Structure formats: structure tokens, C-alpha cells
Amino acid sequence: QRRRLEAFHGKADPKAVDLLWPSLNSSDRELRYASRIALEAQPVDTWKARALAETEPNAGLTALLALARVGGKDSQEEALRALGRWPLSTLDERQQIDKLRVIQVSLARNGLPSDALAQLAIERLSRSYPSSSPRVNREISQVLIALGAPDVVEKTLAVMAQIGRAH
Question: How far apart are CA 110 and CA 129, in angstroms?
Fold first, then answer.
């Protein structure tokens, strides 16, 4: 199945999106990765709306990562808003990290979003920080720092102090 998906890497094909989409929702990371790379090779206008409307977390997060990577600044606000359908508290640890990765890639590739959207992201992510997961804490802190969250330094220092006491 992965090899079938890899046949679309770097090649636009009108049949690709329908064939690869189910694999975006796979529990297998390698299949999701192969599907995402194949998706990125397809014209964005053939799959953007589907990515923005996806309701399954694995498929949606994977498709939105593809959109963050190749959709450009014009797609940034829509993609970041679409992430709102999956609050961090509803996701498992890996999915939380995947969601935060979409935000990180979007910021790295397209810069900061509008002030209103940045503020909304700060408010929502701050509710989950600190998390019980050190891995999630690391990723949330990076996003909050990039967005200029006002209390992220104090929260991060408190998290680091707690880690220091635990060791």
C-alpha cells in the first residue's frame, strides 16, 4: 500500500487524491507520511476544500500539514481555523503533537497569522499549557513563544523548575 502511494510522489494525477485520502487517516505513521507526500504533489485546488472539511483527526491533521507546507499564505488562516475542530484535550499525545506541528510549519513557512487569529491561538493553547506530557509542553511552548504569548516565559520557567525538582 505504501509503495502504491509512493508512485504518486512528485507526480500529479487526477486519480491520486481519491486513492490516497483513506490512508491519511491510517494509524500507521508511514502510510500517513506517504499519503501526505503524494497529496502535496497534487494541485492544491483539487484537495484544499477537502482538507479544510475533514472531520477525522488523523486525516485532518495530516491533510492540514500538507496544506501548511504547500498551500501558501493564502491558505494559512483557513488551515489554522480548521485546526480548531480538534481541541488539544480531545486528542491523544501523538495527535496533539501533530496538531502543534501543523501550527509550527504554518508559522515557519507563512509567518504570523492575523493578530486576531494569533490571539485566539494563544488563548486556546494557553489553556493546555502546561500539559502532563513533557513532549507536548515542549511543542506548545515553542508555538506560544512564536506567537508572542505574554505569559509563556513564566509558565515555561515554572515547568522547567518542576522538571529540575523531579530529577
Answer: 24
